[in-house]
Amino acid sequence: MSEERTGTQSTQWFDRALEVLPGGVSSPVRAFRSVGGTPPVIQKGDGAHVWDVDGNRYLDFVGSWGPLILGHANRHVVKAVANSLKRGTSFGAPSAVEIELAAEVVAGYPGIEQIRFVSSGTEAVMSAVRLARGATERDIIVKFSGCYHGHVDHLLVAAGSGLATFGAPSSLGVPEPIASLTRVLPLDDDDALTALFDREGDRVAAAIIEPVPANNGLLLQRPRFLATLRELCTRHGALLIFDEVISGFRLGPGGAAALYGVQPDLATFGKVIGGGMPVGAFGGPRDIMRHLAPTGGVYQAGTLSGNPVAMTAGLTTLKYLRRYDCWQGLEELGQYLKQRLGSVLNRSGVPAAVVRIGSIFWIAWGSTAAPASAEAIHPDAARIYRDVFHGLLERGIALAPSAYEVGFLSLAHTPEHIDRLADALGEVLDNLNSESASTDRAGNEPEGSDS
Ligand SMILES: *Cc1c(COP(=O)(O)O)cnc(C)c1O
User: Fold this and answer.
1) pLDDT in tens, 160-210
2) How far, in Å, is the centroid of ligand 1 from the Cα of 242?
3) Is 243 a catalytic residue?
4) Does residue 79 carry a catalytic annotation?
5) By the 8 A CB rule, do 108 and 254 touch?
């Protein structure tokens, strides 16, 4: 199906991209490797839509992978950024806007008294982990399989084989000795958690978790599991880090911490906090943050950290969200999406579950039960998603090009946009059902959609 675009300007641009960018992209999932085909090359975005260089319009549920909670090219953000640009792009000195953005975070997030800005989510996590190690004078980090924390060396680690929770590098270039300081546990498993803390809790600097795991499907956790993690960290003197790079300011000003009533020691932010510009941040109580340079011995710095243009995009976004209490509207839109997609899936008979929290959604293909751990995701999910993804893209709807990526709603989405998604999904599933029925009769494979 995706071959239909051969010869378009998108494919010409992407051929050029393949010459000068590894895999044609600046970040791997954009390359369509897991769904096949060639990604459209995007020219512009406005509200809930993006346009490719051939002028095709797509109703967009990727939202730049999370940041664009106000939609593309929101006019308040564009205007504020344009004004900021006229006053210069970077000062390398304190500016009022970074202080204001810090105050927004401090006012909204439970337990945060101070925050430091960086330029990406990865950098936020990397720095928070160093701070945790410096503040506790311990080395071991605990993470959960199915959670993504950016491409930091000590977190690009998968569970080792057998019963061991010892980490093995999940990327070439991550040295074994670094991975060996990371322990990997399954989500949703209180026994494994308790056993690890019993064994070596007193050597753990920090446990890091996405309280709303949204990078390997949407693996919603029982609040009790998060509370147990909190209790174990406290009892053993380890710090709890909530990676709220996706959930922070998307679920509300207090992120998942406020939603579940579980307070971490440190929290990391990215995506929404930068309003579409490169911003990350991490924060916690003064008593921990004082360990950072220049007041403490944990070194951390950045030439473009707290960049005034990026801070302006973030501040404008957060103020808008708060002024109009936008989270309630997003919640209602999310409920509507779940109901509409749920009934389409039901009618189609294709086994799948719509998982949703606030404006984050995911379809768990292959089973009608929502998985709570990476291990519980159905092995057919990626195969089913390939066809669904391309069917929707042909109908002008962009979901993320991977079965394991979530979708995002923004304030630019309306119930009519959700109806379009639901109707298109219904069509795609009807086609798949009739294709597989005729394949069953003919007793052979359907034609491959691409190679
Ligand atoms: C996106 C993401 C990161 C990494 O942020 P980048 O800005 O891509 O470096 C870290 N943690 C979580 C939970 C994320 O979703």
Assistant:
1) 765 557 888 999 999 999 999 999 999 999 999 999 999 999 999 999 999
2) 12
3) yes
4) no
5) yes
